[in-house]
């Protein structure tokens, strides 16, 4: 599902950076997180030699998974690992955060295989409908790859099917990694330390702009069917389709009356996407983000109050920011909260 988003270009002292061009983003994403579990991940961390890369990678990956679903509640994510020259899907594409986090186990060894990773990703993602954004993010810990064939033919397959591949190399820049990212219009990064690695990985939580090639090939459907299920009372017990157990409460599919414990989920009986209105709202803010607040200079003798927290904002002590739409005044802390977490202006609503 794609929409056009026009962002404000007003200058401001707000600490929240925003894009200033008209962009197009996919709010329904299908992403595979690939972790290189070869011998390279067992080397000491760049920041602390007492800990291994594995600890840093696993802990940061868990944070990324939670942040990804917080920003993309309608999307799905899967995990692929590579070691001993093979690639394996650790967890298929799913929207269940708990299952994904629990699958991240420490089992390492051998050499990685980039081509096997890309082939596995392609086999799963090329069947995804065109309204979905297809992405692969690779955390690579080696300087070589044990591949069975010509990797550039695999890269062409990914490019032709609009599958974007981004890579993060923890060792050094690798030519083939750079070429994969360049040809699939992904990004390639070589972090300098653990903090930089976390920053680079977390940048993939927000949906990227669609590529020029995918924009011309993807024809978005006029509508996508979604169901808003009714929540059943906790006193009523019935079989859920997600755990195959008798559980209390749950959400009832409006089409086939199947029950599920959590949302969002795709109904396994009728295929209807089951969501709640907050899920749509949290996805929507990527398309039409809150405008940047502008610097506000109080008039002589005026002592403004923050509309959010009701704190007094004396001119000599505080920076005052104003919403260009509703003209309400906010402090810096509320400005950050509105743009980073709330994603809508309380004054405008």
From TrEMBL:
Database matches in SMART domains: C1_4 (SM01047), VWA (SM00327)
Record-level GO cellular component terms: transcription factor TFIIH core complex; transcription factor TFIIH holo complex
InterPro entries assigned: C1-like_sf, Ssl1-like, TFIIH_C1-like_dom, TFIIH_SSL1/p44, VWF_A, vWFA_dom_sf, Znf_RING/FYVE/PHD
Keywords: DNA damage, DNA repair, Metal-binding, Nucleus, Transcription, Transcription regulation, Zinc, Zinc-finger
UniProt domain TFIIH C1-like: residue ranges: 305-349
Main location: nucleus
Pfam family, any one: Ssl1
NCBIfam families per UniProt: ssl1
Protein's name according to its UniProt entry: RNA polymerase II transcription factor TFIIH subunit
Organism: Naegleria gruberi
Taxonomic path: Eukaryota, Discoba, Heterolobosea, Tetramitia, Eutetramitia
């Amino acid at each position: 599902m794609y929409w056009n988003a026009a962002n404000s270009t007003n200058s401001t002292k707000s600490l929240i950076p925003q894009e200033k061009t008209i962009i197009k983003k996919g709010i329904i994403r299908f992403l595979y997180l690939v972790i290189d579990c070869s011998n390279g991940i067992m080397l000491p961390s760049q920041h602390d030699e007492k800990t291994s890369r594995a600890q840093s990678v696993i802990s940061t990956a868990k944070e990324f998974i939670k942040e990804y679903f917080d920003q993309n509640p309608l999307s799905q994510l899967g995990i692929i690992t590579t070691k001993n020259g093979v690639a394996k899907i650790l967890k298929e594409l799913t929207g269940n955060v708990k299952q994904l986090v629990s699958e991240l186990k420490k089992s390492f060894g051998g050499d990685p295989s980039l081509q096997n990773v890309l082939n596995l990703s392609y086999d799963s993602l090329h069947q995804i409908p065109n309204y979905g954004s297809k992405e692969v993010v690779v955390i690579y810990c080696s300087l070589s790859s044990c591949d069975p064939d010509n990797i550039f033919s695999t890269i062409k397959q990914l490019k032709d099917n609009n599958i974007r591949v981004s890579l993060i190399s923890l060792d050094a820049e690798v030519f083939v990694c750079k070429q994969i990212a360049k040809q699939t219009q992904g990004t390639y990064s070589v972090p300098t330390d653990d903090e930089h690695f976390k920053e680079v990985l977390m940048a993939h939580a927000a949906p990227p702009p669609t590529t020029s090639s995918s924009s011309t090939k993807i024809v978005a459907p006029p509508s996508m069917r979604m169901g808003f299920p009714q929540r059943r009372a906790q006193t009523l017990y019935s079989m859920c389709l997600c755990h195959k157990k008798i559980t209390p409460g749950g959400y009832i599919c409006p089409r086939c009356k199947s029950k599920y414990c959590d949302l969002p989920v795709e109904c396994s009986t009728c295929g209807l996407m089951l969501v709640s209105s907050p899920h749509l709202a949290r996805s929507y803010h990527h398309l039409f983000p809150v405008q940047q607040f502008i610097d506000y200079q109080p008039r002589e003798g005026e002592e403004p109050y923050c509309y959010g927290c009701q704190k007094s904002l004396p001119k000599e002590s505080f920076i005052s920011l104003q919403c260009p739409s509703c003209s309400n005044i906010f402090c810096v802390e509320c400005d950050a909260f509105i743009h980073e977490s709330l994603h809508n202006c309380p004054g405008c609503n």
